[in-house]
Hints:
Blueprint: H1 6-15, H2 24-32, E1 37-40, H3 47-57, E2 61-65, H4 69-81, E3 89-92, H5 98-109, E4 115-118, H6 120-123, H7 126-133, E5 137-142, H8 162-169, E6 174-178, H9 183-192, E7 199-202, E8 210-216, H10 221-230, E9 236-240, H11 244-256, E10 261-264, H12 270-281, E11 287-290, E12 303-308, H13 315-322, E13 332-338, H14 340-350, H15 355-373, H16 378-385, H17 399-402, E14 407-409, H18 411-423, H19 430-438, H20 443-447, H21 464-477, E15 480-483, E16 489-492, H22 494-501, E17 507-509, H23 534-551, H24 555-558, H25 561-570, H26 575-578, H27 585-606, H28 625-635, H29 640-646, H30 651-663, H31 671-677, H32 680-692, H33 698-705, H34 712-727
Parallel strand pairs: 1-6, 1-7, 2-4, 2-5, 3-4, 5-6, 8-13, 9-11, 9-12, 10-11, 12-13
Antiparallel strand pairs: 14-17, 15-16
Amino acid sequence: MAKQTDLSKQLKKHFGFDTFKGNQKMIIQNIMNKKNTFVLMPTGGGKSLCYQLPSLLMEGTAIVISPLIALMKNQVDAMRNFSEDDGLAHFLNSTLSKEAIAAVKTDITTGKTKLLYVAPESLNKEENILFLQNMNISFYAVDEAHCISEWGHDFRPEYRRILPMIQEIGQAPIIALTATATPKVQHDIQKNLGMLDATVFKSSFNRPNLYYEVRQKSKEVDKDIIRYIRNQQGKSGIIYCLSRRKVEEFAETLQLNGIAALPYHAGLDQAVRSENQDAFLMEKCDIIVATIAFGMGIDKPDVRYVIHYDMPKSLEGYYQETGRGGRDGGEGQCIAFYSIKDLDKLRKFHQGKPVAEQEIGNQLLLETQAYAESAICRRKLLLYYFGEAYKQDNCGACDNCIKPHKIVEGQELLTLILETVQLVKEKFKAEHVVDILKGNETVDVKSYQHDRLEQFATATDEDDKFLQAIIRQALLAGYLSRDIENYGLLRLTPAGKAYMKKPTPFPVVKDTEFEEEDDDPALRAGSGSGAADSVLFVILKDLRKKLSKKLDVPPFVIFQDPSLEAMATSYPITIEELQNIPGVGSGKAKRYGEEFVKVIAQHVKDNEIERPEDLRVRSVAKKSAMKVSIIQAIDRKVALDYIAESKGLDFSELLDEVEAIVYSGTKIHIDYFLEEVMEPDHVQEIFDYFNCAETDNVQQALNDLGEDEYSETEVRLVRIKFLSEMGN
């Protein structure tokens, strides 16, 4: 065994570094003493070195269990760069041919290979287990160990099988490494790997060089991001999206706007993924648009910004992904675009899963929502989530600390909350406590007879979100704790019990209010103009009225008010620009657009208007793969409810997609479905209504037709038929 003093020399000899970072030296020494080791180290802290150096110094071959093929390739390439012999490091996975696998096994048998990277699926193969049983294993390293835990942000069932596989191959010390683990996840990992006795090395989660910001996600999110990127010329960035479809769409949008961006997700061909990853590392492109499949172990130190197009499913995911920014200690801007609707969609995906899995998923989403909406220091919230206290009140490097927020006195409400937690014997979550204080007679409140408590309905005038904010800030202040083993039940701390006896002022920062835009443009029709140029808006409305009389169709069939507002804001002067206006599309732009762009161009010229450069954003035609497949299914006369089910949408979401198709000018025929689900005279009555209506607002139609007579779904279905036949 190497002496502790020798490790610095070995570090210099093998990797060229003069000094270790943080706990690296103690971790390596622990492994070399053949002790189980748990490493919790933020992204960029140097986790890989913790198993790479001891593998070179110990007898035998170290097995590194890793979840991603791209990560293995990256790590093996890096190790080979430090050695003259390529046989020093290998990987075993499904991408290798039989000949390549034989060559790898020869290098291991002859003792050349010190590091072998395997995916858990490859390790589980009988032939690999039989082969490794005859090898001298120095230790096992489980990388990205959070994949073991159902509470982790990237749970993989095959990771649960690691311990039985190790026991079958042969015992050796285990080192488990992760950049993100709450206390709950850490315990899960150690228990599942049979290493509760492990020495734990925990580095601070604080990344002082990262700036955190959450912005309102609007319909203009593409423009907002493009505007931001254009101000970051020559800098590297990563943009995370939740779906593969959005990754490809947005990468194409960036390319159309002259930005060097490439997509990355698990559905791409392996060769394309590797090519795009290498292009980013070699700075042949500035930006990678990716799902969470990208970035694990990617050692690019100068990523200057990480943008979340969609909020992630958990704070662990958010922390790990933002952690890929500023790994060299330099600037790292972390900007997330937040919409509660995105989280609501994620909640719907949990439906149908086992109850325990739903509960876990929803708890993780609640934490993400609380982080996004909270107005207190984001660094303090993040570090608390990972079990670390941040003592400063203002970090100076997040949007909440930089801009002032409204502070109100919360002493009385905090006392009520603490008393309620005590009265319900610390056996309920925050939502239940809020229901009691608000006087909400939910099933749980009534069944536990909590509607008889003295505290019931004592805060009816307070907003739910404000009460949740007080609970969150009481957790940070140490008056309450959350029992992570029991899905977040609230517990009183000694400080909380003392506070109830002697309350003191408790200033509370009110949460940020995020205004949600309505998805249905018709719901805003007829409201006051939101256009930047109100004169042009009136001109366009007059032109639409003239055209509607000429064509004998209601004005909203041509363009809706929100579309006119957008025209009076961004001044499209070509058909190509017009088709990028929300609710227009290529069909409507070609059918009705010529006179509109002429009028707008004349208005711009007459008034010497300088069109804002950042609004001239070219966008991909909105016929996404989803919309194309819906159109094709309707052409084949597939029932709409079946289409919704096959796309993983509820029926209302499918109607959103179909409405977007017809509003953009594409003609579709849904008569075959209407004949199945509605009476012909009902269809005709709603159709005739829209033919004479001032607006296509669904609620207005229900008011006029009678809500007892028709459902919202029926009105929406006939509105689709009407718009398609009359306008497209």
